Write the structure tokens for this entry.
Amino acid sequence: MSITFGSPGTPPPIPVIMGAPQYTMLVPNTGNALALTVPTGATHALVTNDSLDGILRWTYGSPNPTATTGHIIQAGTTVELDNITMLRFFANKTNVYMQVSYRHY
């Protein structure tokens, strides 16, 4: 499978970093899921599970993720997500942090 941006032979778009280069966030494992505070103009978030063995779960809003439901981001894994104002995050244990960088394409 290949992904083509624009016309063949043209380079893909280069993302512009929005806000601070990187944010560190503690992800809850009880109570409400974490919603992002998105800088104006950001369209994507680069999210890294910054734990050694914790699992992050995410959804696009309702229903919110729990310790056992939602898409998984394994420890040490980075994903790029869109629809970032709708994203919600939850951890399977205490002291799970994630790194977030906001981008605009």
The mean pLDDT is 86. The chain has one domain: 21-104. DSSP finds no helices and eight strands in the chain.
